[in-house]
Design goal:
This protein is an alpha+beta fold and 1112 residues long. The protein is built from 29 helices and 34 strands. 32% of the residues lie in helices and 22% in strands. The strands form 7 sheets. It has an 8-stranded antiparallel β-barrel. It has an 8-stranded antiparallel barrel with strand order 12-13-14-15-16-17-19-20. Helix 1 runs antiparallel to helix 2 and helix 20 packs across helix 24. InterPro entries: DUF2921, DUF2921_N. It is found in: Endomembrane system.
Length: 1112
Amino acid sequence: MSVAHRTDKNGDQGVGVMQLFQLPLQVSLPQTCFWIVELWGLGMDATLPLALRLWVLGVSVVFILPATCSMKYVSEQTLDATTEDPYTPYDYARFPEVEKHCSSFLSSAHNLEFDFNRANNLKKELSFVGGDWIQVSGDAPLMPFDPSDAPLGASDLPNPLYLVSFSMKHVDPLGNSHSSLKVSGALGLGISRNGTAPESVLYQFPEFRFWPGSSEFRIQFEGVYIELEKNGGERVLCLLGNALLPSRDTDSSHPWEWVKDASSTKYQHPHLQDDQILLVLHYPKVFTLTTRAVRGEMKSLNRPLSPRYFDEIQLSSRLGPYSNYEYGSEDLVSKACAPYPSGDDIVHNQLEVYKGAGFCGILYRFASRELLNIVPNWNCNSTDEYCRKLGPFVTEMAINATDGGFANVGLMMQDIRCEPRIDKNNMSLARVFTVFRAIPPWEDHYMVAPRTGLNGLTLSAEGIWNSSAGQLCMVGCLGLDNEKCQSRICLYVPTSFSISRRNIIYGRISSIEDNKDFSHFPLTFENPVHPSELRNKMNRNPFITYMYSKIKVAGAFLERSEPFDFGNIVKKSLLSYPRKGNDGDDDMANLSNLADALTLHVPVVPDPIPDVHKEKPFLQMEVLSIGSLLFGQYWTLSNASIASNQSIPPSKEDSTEKQLLLNVSAELILYGNLYTNVSLLYLEGLYNPIDGRMYLIGCRDVRASWNILFDSMDLEDGLDCLIEVKVEYPPTTARWLINPTAKFSITSQRNDDDPLHFDPLNLQTLPIFYKEQKEDILSRRDVEGILRIITLSLAILFILSQLFYIRDNGVVVPYISLVMLGVQALGYIIPLITGAEALYARITSESYENPSYEFKENQRFQFIDYMVKILVLGAFLLTLRLGQKVVKSRIRLLTRTPLEPGRVPSDKRILLISFSIHMVGFLGILIMHFVNVSRRPVHQTTYLDPSGNNHKLNEWEMLLEEYIGLLQDFFLLPQIIGNCLWQISCMPLKKTYYIGITMVRLLPHVYDFVRAPVFNPYFSDQYEFVDPNLDFFSKFGDIFIPVTAVVFVIVIYIQQRWNYDKLSQVLRSGQNRLLPSGSRVYDRLPSMSFEAELVAGVNETEIEKIPSEEEA
């Protein structure tokens, strides 16, 4: 297009103003960025008029810049839209070169019977992800690999994977040739240690990139698609590529020296542009068991001495899921399975298997791309080489290291194709094809799932399933070799569960012939299904039953664990635990609700709780069945007779409690590095709803070497079932007095010298809440709210009693300590300012610091909160009124004796002494706390609230807040000091006041000591429920503080009961006095004006009588 240019001072040409109106409607992201830079530079050009510059800048900011934010997304959408249309024009500029280099294929190609509608299908059929590639050894490697991701000194790291992905970009159905189609595509070659394959995307540009542990090379191709008659018919892609090759050094022994410097961010990787790359891919025309492989070669057309030359690359894959599979390997299948069912029957009538018409649906739901477990060769009795083999698969270092235990080795069924049929006898049949892929321990099965490579870890299989036997029998071919179809696979869908078999898929791979090269111990695989999977994947037409086999053993465990205990009898009579409801019309719903109550998903900690938490384990316990009901959204099962036969039959002598015992099966999963021995347990036993305890027998999947497992002859189907598990659930009642946590005890019954023995494990959960207990949770908040209202109401009554007392005994008012009143006022004003729970923060459960929506919207709670705030405000105002009277009385007393101000009581020294005492006390507590903290190896700086939110932990602030509460608890200390300094001979405080306020202050400590703490071990260690004996503010504080407060009450009583002279005479040690001699400084001075102000309507000439000790 015609463009007007501008030239800057340096002579460089840029974008002219006229170009602004000629921007293309569709531009790529790099082009858009170019236009933005040019427009911005144009706006900054000082030679242009100011108005024009501002307009240009406005256009760039308002219109183009926002577009770039979504340009990548838009461009990808546009690209996808154009690539989906086969008629979109594509410039095949290199077609003459393609004809030259692909002439050998073009000359033998036959005419294509091509339907234009097949264009998009052809692109999907010829694309693959995660194939394999190798390079013929030589002096010209294709690309480098940076192994610096490996830790220093690591020697057992897996070898990197060489993976390849190919993607068709365009097929031109309008070409002039009748024997070929013009096509274009992109190839991605990758070397990766973590198993990530090159992305299956439509690469727009050739590219090479690499980082520690991974390298990726992308090449753009265009060429022809042809079909040949040879080899039974094949399809061929012959393509020429364009790439940016990583440059090699001249030293062939060290071609990638520059990789060492590549970590620098400013380092530019050396590249060479190369368009002389030939790729030939061979696809079978018909997809069958023996014609399943895609093979290819990629080679350089440059001279061997050229720096762009590289050694030949060989590629392999299989046809992907968009290719149609044709069943036709009856001879191979009959060789493995005739007569059907196969004699290699692994169930031996021990389990019932599925024989219905929905086999294909079950296979898709429970096997497709699922990670299947490989059972150890626990019953192999042969040589080590034979017993440690992973069936027919060609294993690598990580799998061999498991010694036949196959820990973390998986098996996956890829590309399952199941074709259901009905035979002439109206029996259900199915023809099945799939690829079994073994997965090493270090690979992620999610990354493995889409791969299409065929190698020694893959077994392509085809076979038949017949409902008459319920057996899927298949023949398997290893890797790419059609001569290695020597494996028999028998697969079943069990319809009954037990403690040792919780599998929805169960199978075995064995050798067809006893050939030494192919012989191996039968490899068993399974797919254990979790209870949650049953609910999610099998909510229709359930066919599974449960067979109890450990009920008698669990009954013996129960009797051994429950000796006669009077405390247990009282506990059972007073508390209730989760149990089946009494709704007789819906027994299944009652059992289902009970199963929900017994199901747990909660964090746990060791019991007892350690000082330091190294990790945060999580426990998941799901109930599979209770009695005859297997849970999956109210399933109705027909195994009531099976369950009843396995249960303990109640006799006439049996108690009611024994008749209430329920058979239960469950699954326990424990997440945490410290609990790998019991990370998964299959449980079966008895549940006692009277005391909320389960007595279970557990089985675990043991992953040890095959010879250790073989020596342990007491294994059941390879599982260690000598495990006892005891679960104690919290009661459903009295939750606000009992800690609502469940306790788990897991014990091995093996001898200490047994290699499968493990130490006993005791765990405690965080608080759990039953579904039906919302009202119980609310009732605890109600109780605490009522307690706050009662304590505040009592405090107000006690303050009023003091006000009435000083109205009748006005002379004692100056001797009331203002510091004491200030401490109390501080306790009332802080909640009003901060909005915290008033009056006593300790009385409020930590669970309610972040209330839920129901709590916030509950009108009852709102009413309680409003009442508390009103009462706090009332107590604060009354305390201020009491202080106001004290201040006025001292002012009037001072006006009576202006020349003797020292005779008027003052709180200056009281404030100084009290501050000093509390400062020393706070520093002592602070020092004691940090000394305890320094002894812990791990110190927390954050904590979790009950909602799981993380908060920063300021320890000194927390301690200061606690100490402010201690100030209020010791509110009588300033009055005691004042009584000593003023040498009183009267009663400033009424007994009802100082005893009552002290009782109000002690009530939260009593409640905190009695009630169960809201348990959260992930809070900081300073909280009392982490370690009750940790610091001053703990259970010890709940005892020490009330005792000290009671001592203060006794001291006040003694000071007011006896005058100072009498008290000093009593407190003697021989001839020495413990108190100084009495002084006349603070003798009371009667003041007529003072008395008149306090008692309204009293004649100014009246003199108030001084109250006697008995009158007070």
